[in-house]
Design goal:
The structure holds 2 protein chains of 2 kinds.
Chain A: E1 5-7, E2 10-14, E3 19-24, E4 30-38, E5 45-50, E6 56-59, E7 62-67, E8 72-77, E9 86-94, E10 100-102, E11 106-111
Parallel strand pairs in A: 2-11
Antiparallel strand pairs in A: 1-3, 3-8, 4-5, 4-9, 6-7, 7-8, 9-10, 9-11
Chain B: E1 4-7, E2 10-13, E3 19-25, E4 31-38, E5 42-51, E6 54-57, E7 64-66, E8 76-78, E9 87-94, E10 107-108, E11 112-116
The chains are: A mainly beta, B mainly beta.
């Protein structure tokens, strides 16, 4: 079973601040790293799926990077807005199985 | 497309009762999953399926059963409900390989909140 760790567990920022969080995962037999955004009372929605070392993906003010050799990914939010408040989940898939293992998430609260 | 549809959204069970959580998807995804979400614990994989007729255990399969008779449907059965099965259950599906602009990301249902008393 993969062990996917996320930090910090929770984060409070002011509107307009930029922020970032970390996801670490086993680097051996890596296949893909997923980021999801999960708003309260809704279901998780995919932000990014990354597979290549050095990959960088961007969607609006949110971007992510991937380092498969050392087993970590960063998610960045530039100029946080209250609507960015959510739990951000990362999940890793190893190459030899079909299972996606999730971290516990980072709960982001953006204060207006 | 309706996406991933789960029913029921809410259910209260007594200890020892049985029930089935229904999940259906209309995206022709071959992979389907059941996760449970407990406070502070993140999403834990119960069972998954890589295609019709094929199922396999995830991290926390005890107390549950699944079947996959069609590509669209992946029901989760609780045979003897226990208080430890009080949780929010999410069904999800995905393509097995990148296609049509998708890269294997999961599409989730809206969740089913189950309480066992």
């Amino acid at each position: 079973i993969l062990n996917v760790e996320q930090s910090p567990q929770s984060l409070h920022v002011q509107e307009g601040d930029s922020t970032n969080f970390t996801c670490s995962f086993p680097s051996s037999n890596f296949y893909a790293l997923h980021w999801y955004r999960w708003e309260t009372a809704k279901s998780p929605e995919a932000l990014f799926v990354m597979t290549l070392n050095g990959d960088e993906k961007k969607k609006g003010r949110i971007s992510a990077t991937l380092n498969t050799k050392e087993g970590y990914s960063y998610l960045y939010i530039k100029g946080s807005q209250p609507e960015d408040s959510a739990t951000y989940l990362c999940a890793s898939r190893g190459g030899s199985n079909y299972k996606l293992t999730f971290g516990k998430g980072t709960l982001l609260t953006v204060n207006p | 497309n309706a996406g991933v549809t789960q029913t029921p959204k809410f259910r209260i069970l007594k200890i020892g009762q049985s029930m089935t959580l229904q999940c259906t998807q209309d995206m022709n995804h071959n992979y389907m999953y059941w996760y449970r979400q407990d406070p502070g614990m993140g999403l834990k994989l119960i069972y998954y399926s890589v295609g019709a007729g094929i199922t396999d255990k995830g991290e926390v399969p005890n107390g549950y059963n699944v079947s996959r008779s069609t590509t669209e449907d992946f029901p989760l059965r609780l045979e003897l409900a226990a208080p430890s099965q009080t949780s929010v259950y999410f069904c999800a599906s995905s393509y097995s390989t990148p296609r049509q602009g998708h890269n294997g990301e999961l599409f989730f249902g809206e969740g089913s909140r189950l309480t066992v008393l």
